[in-house]
Design brief:
Blueprint: E1 7-14, E2 22-27, E3 46-48, E4 56-59, E5 62-69, E6 80-88, E7 97-104, E8 115-118, E9 123-126, E10 137-143, E11 165-171, E12 177-180, E13 192-201, E14 205-206, E15 213-216, E16 223-231, E17 238-244
Antiparallel strand pairs: 1-5, 2-4, 2-6, 3-5, 6-7, 8-9, 9-12, 10-11, 10-13, 13-14, 13-15, 16-17
């Protein structure tokens, strides 16, 4: 799993422990490397020796170098596959053979600088746009507990972290603000609210979740708790009204 924009480079080695023995070494991507990362329209992968040199005939070890400068256009739901194959001897005897596959996933990065600002029974979220401008929008997730967020730097797991529910979504790469008012019902005064943002791409690909931002609802007005009839009478009837004082204004 790598982030778009990363340079991926690694060696591929085929080794026969019999010194001086012959070896066939293939790149098995459709025979000529015409699929997977070699077939993307922008910045395709390369391999040395070049594709035209395969299969390589020689003595062990045989080494190839895979190189791919990835970019945002490579984000997709399916993984990319690089397939290698080697067998013993120059002839058709393929009794001793081995196959290996490298699976590559281009995992979108999370958005950065998520902030949460408390208002009157609502919370306003802002964040930086995703580094990849081919994003189609963002999903916002809320937790009222200690929901966990993956902290690994690569984040091969994408989508919704544990303990979070969807609070809403916005469309468009440049839309980086969301107001959570619980669909117009207002948020409750129930401790701390935490949020993460997930970027959405074509094919419903989702990025790693952002780091969480947490805030409590600002209680800047009285909150009504109770109304009771103490005495029912048309002339001397009494009511009891109970409320909490505001906690964030100077009374």
């Amino acid at each position: 799993c790598i982030k778009p924009g990363s340079l991926l480079q690694f060696n591929i080695t085929a080794l026969d422990p019999d010194f001086g023995d012959s070896l066939y070494f293939y790149l098995n991507n459709a025979g000529a490397g015409v699929n997977g990362p070699f077939n993307v329209s922008s910045s395709p992968a390369t391999i040395q020796p070049p594709l035209s040199a395969f299969p390589i005939r020689g003595f062990s070890p045989q080494v190839g170098v895979f190189t791919w400068q990835t970019n945002c256009s490579h984000i997709r739901k399916a993984f990319y596959q690089v397939d290698y194959y080697a067998h013993d001897n120059f002839g058709n005897n393929k009794t001793l053979a081995a196959n290996a596959i490298t699976m590559i996933r281009i995992v979108p990065e999370p958005v950065q600088n998520l902030t949460a600002t408390s208002g009157s029974r609502k919370i306003t979220l802002t964040w930086n746009p995703n580094p990849c401008d081919n994003a189609t929008g963002y999903e916002i997730y809320r937790s009222t507990g200690a929901g966990s967020v993956p902290t690994d730097s690569i984040c091969c797991r994408t989508g919704v972290p544990n303990g979070y529910v969807k609070a809403g979504e916005v469309q468009g790469w440049a839309t980086t603000t969301f107001v959570d008012d619980n669909n117009g019902e207002g948020l409750e005064f129930s401790g701390e609210y935490c949020y993460v943002v997930v970027t959405v791409f074509p094919e419903a690909v989702k990025s790693c979740p952002s780091q969480k931002a947490c805030v409590s609802i600002r209680r800047d007005f009285p909150v009504l708790y109770n109304v009771s009839v103490l005495n029912t009478n048309t002339a001397t009837g009494t009511m009891e009204v109970i409320w909490s004082q505001p906690t964030e204004i100077d009374t």
